[in-house]
Design brief:
With 244 residues, the chain is of the alpha/beta class. It is 30% helix and 25% strand. The chain contains eight helices and 13 strands. The longest helix is centred in the first third of the chain and has 13 residues.
Length: 244
């Protein structure tokens, strides 16, 4: 028995991988943040669940390890990919405080990939993913990462761009990016990726600065090569531009 950390993908279960579905079917207990467990509860109605609210990540990871040590097969679920701002790392950390337990990490479709597919193909070339949440990362470090990514001309995917307690973080981030990037740089945003009410928009970096977003939104800031082709946000890899 052990703990399997499962990425559910960005939507309401529609983007579960085959491995993820198989892990949920064979487990004895599903553990996770209440909102994420609710997304799949209907597909696995007979499975016992253990849920906690926000900011109780350590509690549910410890509970998962403890249940596994009792002989249960436990699935810890996360939205997107469990190893991208998910619970995979924390499970590995807290497991050090217990007797050895088997841990398996099953990847899922992260919001960067899910949102990029909605917009077109903005991540076809090099890109960086940066979270604007300063709950666990100091804002001065986030600023440094934004500045370095902009100077290196990466396409930048922004997670957690704003919340009720930090409504101005996207504007602050755009001000940093505008020191290196043109205001006309093509950008995109997707809200509720893969869920009911999915919305997408393509706009410029200058427009993005004054756009209201929330925690359900993923933001994409193009590089100097990013273009809009027939309504799709695309960063060419260079196949058509290379010498033949």
């Amino acid at each position: 028995m052990g703990v399997t950390v499962v990425g559910l993908g960005p939507g309401a279960g529609a983007d579960l991988t085959g491995r993820a579905r198989a892990a949920l079917e064979r487990c004895d207990l599903i553990v996770g943040y209440t909102a994420y467990v609710d997304l799949i509860r209907g597909e696995f109605p007979q499975k016992p669940v253990l849920t906690t609210g926000m900011r109780r990540e350590e509690d549910r990871c410890r509970a998962a390890v403890e249940e596994a040590l009792k002989g249960r097969e436990v699935a810890v679920v996360c939205s997107g990919d469990a190893g991208v701002y998910g619970m995979a790392g924390l499970i590995c950390e807290v497991a050090q405080d217990y007797p050895p337990v088997d841990i398996e990490v099953i990847p899922g479709i992260t919001a960067a990939c899910g949102g990029a597919a909605v917009l077109g193909a903005p991540l076809t070339h090099d890109f960086a993913v940066i979270s604007l949440s300063d709950l666990l990362t100091p804002w001065d470090l986030i600023e440094k990462r934004l500045a370095c990514a902009a100077a290196a001309d990466f396409v930048i995917c922004l997670y957690n761009p704003a919340s009720r307690h930090r409504p101005g973080h996207l504007r602050r981030a755009c001000d940093i990016l505008l020191k290196e990037k043109d205001p006309e740089t093509p950008c995109g945003l997707v809200r509720n990726i893969g869920r009911s009410g999915e919305e997408a928009r393509i706009l410029t970096l200058g427009e993005l600065r004054d756009t209201e977003v929330d925690m359900f939104t993923t933001v994409f800031v193009g590089s100097s090569r990013t273009v809009v082709l027939n309504g799709r946000l695309v960063t060419p890899r260079g196949y058509l531009q290379r010498e033949r």
